[in-house]
């Protein structure tokens, strides 16, 4: 089995997902629903795929933006490739939730997207902290 993602890599993935979710105006309850989906897999190693599938289901229901779902899928693939299991998915999505909630002070939608100094795909956790500090 490969080495799992580092904490720094997890923070960077979580930052991208959380910022994109704010831009897409994803409701907080959807982040919580993603966390709940982690527990539905009978085999813990299938949790990443279940979460990715659920994210795309919610795109169809117009609850999660496609770009947010794509980032969730990318993160879940990375976790799965590294042998990530239920607890790893839970940790990543927990970080997404904290970052998402902290970003509430900056707003959401197009206003937030305009204030970003970089594209979401190039954003990292330190960039999010800088935004939160007002830098």
List keywords for this structure.
single chain; 135 residues; mainly alpha; 7 helices; globular
Description:
By secondary structure, the chain is mainly alpha-helical. It has one domain (7-133). It contains 7 helices and no strands. The chain has helices spanning 7-23, 28-37, 47-60, 66-81, 86-102, 109-115, 125-133. Helix 2 packs antiparallel against helix 5 (86-102) and helix 3 runs antiparallel to helix 4. The protein is globular and about 40 Å long. It starts with 6 loop residues before the first helix and ends with a helix. 37% of the residues are buried. The model has no long low-confidence stretch (mean pLDDT 92).
State the gist of this model.
This protein has 135 residues and is mainly α. It has helices at 7-23, 28-37, 47-60, 66-81, 86-102, 109-115, 125-133.
